[in-house]
Amino acid sequence: MPRVKDPAYVVEILDRLLYDEPEVYARILYIEQPFPYDLKASRIDVRPIANRKPIFMDESAHDWKLVRLGREDGWSGVALKTCKTQTSALLTYCWAKAHGMTVMVQDLTNPMLAQIPHVLLASHVDTIMGVESNAMQFYPSASEPEAKVHSGLYKRRDGVLDLSTIKGPGFGYRVEEIPRELPEPHYVASR
Questions:
Q1: Strand 55-57 with 31-32, pairing
Q2: Residue 137 dihedral angles phi and psi, to the nearest 5°
């Protein structure tokens, strides 16, 4: 949980980097939400930071209405996450782009089939820099069955994911080809 409550702290770090380490400063693409996630409870004017580097809403950006509130406070971008529902990510994207905000797509470590809608969203929206996908770092074996069908989605090659195996109905999961053993459902709805 971010503990920073004063933009001056972040501004001081950025200004020191600009003065002492300009090459490092130049490589900073954006600042990702260093402040508490509850934007309603913690209204913070982030314009002093946004004047230096783009500042992206992260965990608090799960609803376009919160993104609107963030924009009022000076946030310049938003991190979309399909784990907070595809619909919410799409609505947030539409609102953010209509109001001149930059977007990125992050995954909160989406393993297995969750990786597919995540990378599909990133492939269809204009992101600041591709897609964040880190399940293969934190849970390398979690997606082994899915990787047998979609090998390019679960292993980066030269920093790139290969989406070419995603095809067919729905999200292109190809579930029937994935050798994953699932437990029996606890409940089956009657027709």
A1: parallel
A2: -80, -45
Give strand pairing partners of 105: 80
3 state SS of 160: strand
3-class DSSP state for residue 78?
strand
- Which residues have a Cβ under 8 Å from the Cβ of 168 and sit 6 or more positions away? 174
Do the Cβ atoms of 31 and 55 come closer than 8 Å? yes
Amino acid symbol at 15 = D
The per-residue b/e assignment along 77-99, b for 16 or more CB within 10 angstroms, e otherwise, is bbbbbbbeebebbbebbebbeee
Q: How far apart are CA 30 and CA 170, in angstroms?
A: 34
Q: How many residues are given for the chain?
A: 191
Radius of gyration of the chain (CA): 19
Q: What is the pLDDT of residue 1?
A: 54
Task: Name the pTM for this structure.
Answer: 0.83
What whole-number distance in Å separates Cα of residue 100 and Cα of residue 88?
A: 18
Each residue of 2-12: pLDDT tens digit? 677 889 999 99
Closest CA to 44 of 69, 13, 80: 69
**Strand stretches in 27-124, DSSP E:** 31-32, 55-57, 77-80, 102-105
CA proximity to 110, closest of 102, 120, 118 = 118
